[in-house]
Amino acid sequence: MNDAVFYTFQRATGMRPNPQEFTSRANAAINGAANAGDTMLLVHRTASRYTTYFAVSKSAASANKGLELAQAYGARATTVDELPDEIVETPHIVKLKFRSSDFGADTQYGADPAEMARSLSNAMPDDSWVGFAIRQVTKQETRRNRPYVDHRIGPGSRHLSKTKSALVFSIYVGAQSRTEAINLARDIPDMMTGFDLAARPVTVSNVNRKAAKFLGVAIAVAAVTVAADSAFDTLPDQVVSFGWLVAGLLTLLSLVGFVFGPPKRQVRRHLQRGFLPRPKSSPVFVRKPRKEGTKILRDHEGNQRIKTIKAFDGSYPFHKEAFLFEPTVFAPAGNPHGSSYAGAITASDREVTPELTSSHGPIIGHTVQGTSVPIPASSLRYNTMIFGEPGSGKSVLLQGLWGWLCQERVNPSGREHHPGADSTLIAIETKGSGVEGYLSHSALHGDKAILVDALDHTTPAIDPFDFGDLPMREQSERIVSALKYAFDDGSIMGRSAESLRAVYPAALAAMHYQIVDEDWMGDDASHRRLSQPGVTEHDFAHALLMGQTPETFDAIMATLSTLADRCKREGDLDAYDEITEAVDDMGTLIQMTPAARRSHTEAPRNKIDVLRRMGYYFRDDRPVTSFENVLRKHQAVVINVGSNDSGQVMEDEQSKLLASLLVYNLRSAIQRVCSSWEAQGRSVSLLCDELSMLAGSNEEVLMWMRDQGRSYGVRMHHGSQFPAQLNVKLLENVFGYHTVATYTMGSSKPSEVVAHEFADDVTGEEIRNLGKYQLLMVTNVNDEIQPPVTVNVHNFNEDVLL
């Protein structure tokens, strides 16, 4: 017979509480239920449903605690009679036990209330469940917990186990196989924001371990009794009888435990009653934590010595199966808005204005009523930004825009604001999966696109350090500036930048004058390393940053000095001045000892080593072109810095570095080549589905392209998964694009950020509830802002049979 009232929750339209409101409401609802009696939150995943069961006592139900939790979720609550049989009869059950508390503090505040349910619904296998058994915390447990937590994270620090809302809970997992149950249980701690303990999964077995211990002790008592009776002839019969009595009682207790107390049977019996087993009480004795200190000891002669007392973290103040945190650590698991398996919910359908319908530009899809929706060509001149979580459709839409641009290049419409034939197209593909789409759309319209595959040396490379015909010192400055921009951790500053400015003139001189072919002033080993095919100025820079031996450093500098003297004797004073100036720049490093030099240059050396490891891109047998050439010839180029068809994968660090270096170099080429292009009816369109990959360490280049690039004919069409991937200044900049659209974003904060920029009546919920390949778009028609429109976007991959 059930002792519980079961609530389930359905997703509901309308406003949902923000994270702060969710925290207060969920804490109040679950605390109120736990104060009234047994409480359980359980989520069940089948092949077609993700269902939450909130089990409370009848008194808690009469106080509407289930309805309160529904309000916290922004959902509708209904009651059911009992748990499904498949939950009670799940063949394999696992529970989590405390392992360690080395993770430090974490926080739940501001987290997306639906994220845990979203993660769980994806991670849970079919016909599995995750349950949380909940009880009140005792005063003694509260007193023990505070010093334990303060010792870990410092007194006065906020922690979710120290608040008045904190409750004790245990975590159980049920699945169709033991492996599935254990794997799911291992993942759960990472899904609970604010849960900063390490826990391990333990199988709930069919064997009562206490009963097994009783049986073991019974056998031991019996064995001792027999041995004693044999060894001591005078042993009183009463002692022997007592031994057999004890052994018999222990055996009886073990048999009772085996028959009536298997742990798995106990869990199932509790579930039949409506709840999981209550979290166990804390141990009677708990060792307190202590800080490291000293103690003065005296021996019997009065001599003193100081004894060091080591720090001790203290014993875990709860039973190993129990955890103390606010309910909002686990309550998000039951949020029906986190999983599409919890039932359908739709976004608002916003209609298109007549002005937008009648404008000319690429048709990207239709409204629910079937009205075609274009992005006006007049708006495309002022850039396009598309947000959306992975897999939502950003890349496909960008490939569709690329196809329209290719069509304009091959068959110019001649309409106002349309790009026409004199347009350069550059797509930077960051994942690799979109390469085929770009190339196929080019072929569909009879356009020819050049593929630059970073990992394929049979395709051409665009030299990211080609800044035109510049003096060596200015070329060096441009290289260092490009590196400062490309490395996004701000590491190339101060001393690092100073070191790079010193070594690159010498490295460029070493390459330009081919010093390894001159009278090398060093050992054979260093000569062999620097005379190999494929050596670049970055290898010389790395060596001068002490990436090789001190002898290599000395050899490069000695050879440059000797070469300068020879140039002076031969009357080549320009070369003499250039080399001498480079050598002089190295003065500070030359004066250091090798050890001091190595320490001084460690940070920039590590950065240049990343470039050296990209030899596949800079290899000397690879055809090379430049952005200047691409722009002058109005070429269409697809640059792949992701994986390729051969299964090769570019390291993320190298991919981001190369993409940032290329966009920095592109800006330089545009400044040299594209002056007054807009007035001439010429354009260069840059497309990338991950804008953050181009942004480098700051917003300088991309903001220039938006703010000043228009007169150069620059048009940008970008995508980004979330606003937070862009820094504040760049984010403000892209919201100034004339077309800003968004696919769905499951998380609350990013959707709210975008909604705030769209219109007063757009909510984050509306964005979160967008369907797949459905977007919300704000655009301009002849510089007039149009209201947001909901678009069912065309699957442009179907056009090229992808």
UniProtKB/TrEMBL annotation:
Keywords associated with the record: Membrane, Transmembrane, Transmembrane helix
Top-level taxon in the UniProt lineage: Bacteria
Family annotation (Gene3D superfamilies): P-loop containing nucleotide triphosphate hydrolases
InterPro entries hit by this protein: P-loop_NTPase
Keyword Transmembrane in annotation: yes
Entry's transmembrane regions: 214-232, 238-260
Organism, scientific name: Enteractinococcus helveticum
Keyword Transmembrane helix in record: yes
Name recorded for this polypeptide: TraD/TraG TraM recognition site domain-containing protein
